[in-house]
Amino acid sequence: MPIATMSAEYTSDHWSDVRHILHKAIEKAGFIPRIVSDSEESTVIHGSIINNIYNDAIIVCDVSNKNANVMFELGMRLAFNKPIVIVKDDKTDYSFDTGNIQHEPYRKDLRHSTVEKFIDDLSRKIVKTYEASQREEYQSFLSYFGKFEVARVENKSIGESEAIEKVLNKMTVLESQIKNLNHNNLESTSNILQSTDNLIIDHQIQYADKLATILNMIETKIPLVMEVSYSFEKERFYIKFKEKISINYAHKYNELIKNIIRNNDDELPF
């Protein structure tokens, strides 16, 4: 299951509440809960995830909101042909590839009256799935599609110098990726900051009967304008463009619109 915020509806606090509920169900089933990235040793987190996915007796996988990492980890567990229990909230659709596997559902709003039932149902599901996996006639997900030679995770021993070299190489690659990511983010942010699709111009209208003429003149003189309005309360013009424009063009349009306003906000009848 995810642990970080994914959207306004799926915050880290939401996942923390879900994890607490799942832990209750797992403990009730007689198992000790932990997330797959946990390890008693100080090691590379990806190695811990893969080893735990392969070695743990049973895994509960929450696919709510279809987090990419979670779906990948689910795929690994299924590829290892190991027992798994899938849960999801009632706002998440079934995935095409795993829709034929029974999911244990729960309400996304985590309403208390339904949470207790979910804990009971999930704990029973965990026990039944684990017990079934211990029997010789157990049929896993892969068994429905034929006979497969399942991949195994093997433990390998390497020398200290080789291990350090591998870690340093990985760190170099990660450092390079982070630099590229930061550079791309800065470029993206710069592009956002250097363009806009709206303008706000402060101006106190002196002749209210001229407002309609001013608004019409702005739209006529600048075809790129999609919408223009004025607030007497805030004494502001609001201009919305049909597309984003550069800051340089925004400054030019700002001066042009101000001239239109000044030239028409007078007592002359034309």
UniProtKB/TrEMBL annotation:
SUPFAM superfamilies: N-(deoxy)ribosyltransferase-like. It comes from the Bacteria. This is Nucleoside 2-deoxyribosyltransferase family protein.
